[in-house]
Specification:
about 220 residues; about 30% helix; 7 helices; nine-stranded mixed sheet; alpha/beta
């Protein structure tokens, strides 16, 4: 297991990446978590555009195109108030997601680098079924191409936007994306918060559990 330890600050960091097709609600889930967390337990919300793209569009165009802009990344750090220290180290969660279309592979590859857990955020509607499968195939491929531990890192499925009309049955989503029910799954709504914290709690638990196999922490740099 590859986690980051900052001995000077007494912190152990876990990187959790929200991954999925464009417009599935990855950012909405993270925004809900950020909004419902007290300020002393979180860092500022970071919304980053790659510099090469800022040179292409005017700022007004960036704001207008934000939901689908290539490579856009959102992230923040969360210190769970209810999570006990591990070996005297305070737990910090580095939560991040890449917004935009599935074709932004380079940014998604970067978001998975050194990740300790993945939240797969899927469309619940019928129109998103193909995009879900494409994103899942990309996730499997990118993790398989990563370092050894990444092929086995835990994931949780967030079947998102359950608040909209025309959603698919959860059984259908499980059949397509999690057929062996190997990973936990949750019905979620990033806008209203249904299941969002429950899904995060499951991913945190699954990401921390392998610490029994973790012999040599990597110092944060």
């Amino acid at each position: 297991m590859l986690v980051r330890v900052d001995q000077e600050r007494g912190e152990i960091h876990f990187k959790l990446t929200y991954f999925g097709p464009g417009m599935s609600g990855k950012q909405s889930c993270l925004r809900y978590i950020w909004n419902r967390t007290r300020s002393e337990y979180k860092t500022a919300w970071q919304d980053v555009f790659p510099s090469d793209e800022l040179g292409v569009f005017s700022w007004d165009e960036c704001i207008r195109m934000a939901p689908t802009l290539r490579g856009r990344q959102v992230w923040f750090e969360l210190t769970p108030a209810t999570l006990a220290p591990i070996n005297g180290l305070r737990v910090k969660l580095d939560l991040q997601a890449n917004s935009g279309g599935l074709w932004s592979e380079s940014s998604r590859r970067l978001s998975l680098e050194c990740a300790d857990g993945v939240m797969f955020v899927a469309h619940s509607n019928t129109e998103g079924a193909e995009a879900n499968l494409e994103a899942l195939q990309m996730l499997d491929r990118l993790l398989a191409e990563g370092v050894a531990h990444q092929a086995k890192i835990p994931r949780v499925f967030s079947y998102n936007k359950r608040d909209i009309s025309g959603v698919r049955d959860l059984a259908e989503l499980e059949r397509d994306l999690n057929p062996q029910q190997r990973w936990p799954s949750f019905a979620t709504s990033g806008i209203h918060g249904e299941g969002v914290f429950a899904a995060l709690k499951a991913l945190v638990s699954a990401s921390i559990r392998p610490l029994g196999e973790w012999p040599h922490p990597r110092a944060a740099g």
